[in-house]
Design a protein that fits this description.
By secondary structure, the protein is of the alpha+beta class. The protein folds into 4 domains: about 60 residues, no CATH class; about 110 residues, Band 7 domain (Tetrahydropterin Synthase, Chain A, 2-Layer Sandwich); about 60 residues; about 45 residues, no CATH class. It has 8 helices and 9 strands. The strands form 3 sheets. Strands 6, 7, 8 and 9 form a 4-stranded antiparallel β-sheet that branches. The chain has a 3-stranded antiparallel β-sheet with strand order 3-2-5, with no helix packed on it. Strands 1-4 form a two-stranded antiparallel ribbon. Helix 3 runs antiparallel to helix 5 and helix 6 crosses helix 7.
Length: about 290
């Protein structure tokens, strides 16, 4: 019985000593072995390791991807002096435990605070160069690309890698919504007036061009008509001259008949003439043109 108790006591003592001298590191963590607050060993591979009991202690650092998620959105001002609320998150991971420990010690919050401040400062800088439209939709990807670049450079000094930075939402403050709506309405009205003015100017231009073409066409038609009329008159004169030259008596008789027809075309027409005048000579004598 005494031997059993002694054996059990020895086993318990061995377990106790093992717990003081042995420790494990799994694949999720890296470990730093401290001796009197001085880092003696850095362990990055998983396994079972020894330490000096009561003299050395082990601190584990999580190597998994971690998230900094803002509890409250940051209040940021754009180039138009309008305040927006930017809600973002940061994905980061420890890649160099030694550098991380030297930079922030045993307080992980120093690393998260530094990353948060770096990202918020960069967002303020980038938003301050752009309009509300740009940061809400137009150039958000460009903004986040620049923020990620600077944040990752700063994080490298901590032994940390920034894997992703995203804006979950960007909203206008309630106090600035009315001014934004008013500005949008003003811009739309200005654009509408500009389009109307351009349309009116274009319409005037088209009308002026149409009027010009109309005048050109009318002038061209008038010239052609006058030309045709001149040609017709010349041809008629030639025909008349030819007819007169062929038989002057008949020509004179024919012209007199035309004159009679035109003169007596209407019953209401009244003419006062001397019966012995030249106008009636062919009525008195159809051969008057011959003189005998």
């Amino acid at each position: 019985m005494n031997r059993l108790i002694t054996f059990l006591a020895a086993g318990l003592l061995l377990l106790f000593l093992s717990s003081l001298t042995l420790f494990t590191v799994d694949e999720r963590y890296s470990a730093v072995v401290f001796q009197f607050s001085e880092a003696k060993r850095i362990i990055s591979k998983p396994g079972i390791y020894f330490k000096v009991p009561f003299v050395q202690e082990v601190r584990r650092f999580d190597r998994r991807i971690q998230t900094i998620d803002e509890s409250q959105p940051a209040r940021i001002q754009t180039i138009e002096k309008m305040n927006v609320l930017a809600d973002s998150y940061i994905k980061w991971q420890i890649v160099d435990v030694e550098k991380f420990y030297k930079a922030v010690g045993l307080d992980d919050r120093k690393a998260t605070d530094r990353l948060r401040n770096t990202v918020n400062n960069m967002l303020r800088d980038e938003f301050g160069k752009r309009t509300v439209q740009d940061v809400i939709s137009g150039k958000r990807e460009e903004v986040m690309k620049q923020v990620s670049k600077v944040a990752d450079t700063d994080a490298a000094n901590l032994g940390v890698k920034v894997l992703d930075i995203r804006l979950k939402r960007v909203e206008l403050e309630a106090g600035t919504l009315n001014s934004v709506y008013e500005r949008m309405q003003s811009e739309r009205k200005t654009e509408a007036n500009r389009l109307r003015a351009e349309g009116a100017a274009q319409a005037d231009k088209i009308k002026a061009d149409a009027d010009k073409q109309r005048e050109v066409l009318l002038a061209d038609a008038y010239n052609k008509a006058q030309k045709l009329k001149g040609e017709g008159d010349a041809r008629a004169a030639a025909i008349s001259a030819a007819a007169y030259g062929a038989n002057p008596e008949f020509y004179a008789f024919y012209k007199s008949m035309d004159a009679y027809r035109e003169s007596f075309a209407k019953k209401s027409d009244v003419m006062v003439l001397e019966p012995s005048g030249e106008f009636f000579k062919y009525m008195k004598n159809p051969r008057a043109g011959g003189g005998k």
